[in-house]
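Sanity check

After download, print the first record. It should look like this:
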Amino acid sequence: MSESDPDDEKPPDELYLEKLQVPKGGTDKTPELLTPVVHGLSDKWRNYVIRFIFTWLMIGAFCVIIYLGPYALMVITLAVQWKCFQEIINIGYSVYRVHGCGLKVSHFYSLFIFDKCNFTISSLPWFRSLSWYFLITSNYFFYGESLVDYSSVIVNRFEVFKWLINYHRFLSFSMYIIGFVWFVLSLVKKYYMRQFSLFAWTHVALLIVVTQSYLIIQNIFEGMIWFIVPVSMIVCNDVMAYMFGFFFGRTPLIKLSPKKTWEGFIGGGISTVLFGLIISYYLCQFPLFVCPTEYSDETNSTWSSFGLDCEPSYLFQIQIYKVPSSFGLSQIFGIPDTLNIYPFQLHSLSMSIFSSVIGPFGGFFASGFKRAFKIKDFGDIIPGHGGILDRFDCQFLMATFVNVYIASFIRTPLPQKLLQQVLTLKPEQQLQLYNALRDSLTNRGILQIIRG
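Expected structure tokens:
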């Protein structure tokens, strides 16, 4: 008698999940338009062709959105966030069939009996409405914070919006309290476990999706290059890892994702580092990509005050770096003793290493999550790829890293951002600040030097 694999000894709740009719993902979905193209191909090559076509379609769409500017990127980020939230919540709906619905428990964990499930989400009063209400509330708080930080001056020019800025956090808290009270009043005795479980599920989804999208918006405000380069790195790593794994993959990488191989992991990592250096060098040459989204009061036009034209900072100006002679690179590879590169390219190395080494673990996490609920993809909106979350599972992790990296190693106090806060003050407060600053500069002898 052979020993059974511990992974094959499934608990009763997993066995019941297998009985649920969970819709298949989009990786097996073939659009009617492409049916003649992939007809007669094996499943492996059919999936490769569909995935290849839609990958380049998404890359093309991404380039168009970049061309439209930072505000278009923010709108798309919000749309992606809503779709990801929907996909997570839809999976959460199936969880409740397990909690007290598909299983009857007796003798305190000693006996599990499967029972027919008549429970539906409609049995929970107001749950769908509450889930989306909390999403709207979270977005109002986070996106409102961005509006206050970066656009408060322009919004303050409209009297109707002034009170929204002044009491933004109080209004956000009030909206959440309304949702909280709404949830408590909707509790039904026989559904306590399911309702509280879904309440927790919703908040975890908000933490994963809304918070990360907020960080993406913050990165865009620092300059579109801080969004484009990390996102492109994840895309490059995903594409090249798939290519190397498809053609050369032999050695499995991790059990959570059986199709991932060491060959794909290493090939994707090396490709991402090289790609990061190249795209960083190219984008650093354009103020459109490197200038932060800042307010300028020097123009009479309201919306043109948020231009993307500036004097590039040190990070985006060519610098000369001397190669240590101890490396012996000039003798071995013929590399010159000095290198003329953008400092941002050195920072891109950190991002490319993270995206190629740690980034895939976001995908592994998503793979484990899907395996736990016996689904192949989060959705089927993108043929050959699955759902939106299937394409953005690594992006959220990358966005957090970039935001932390900027805050830790890059960001310095910016005069323009301080000016935004000053211009929101009352005239008498601005005058008081001016006099205090003038006296301080005079006492330190700085004001006289500038006048001279």
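If your output differs, re-run the checksum step. Summary of this record's structure: The chain is about 65% helix and 5% strand.
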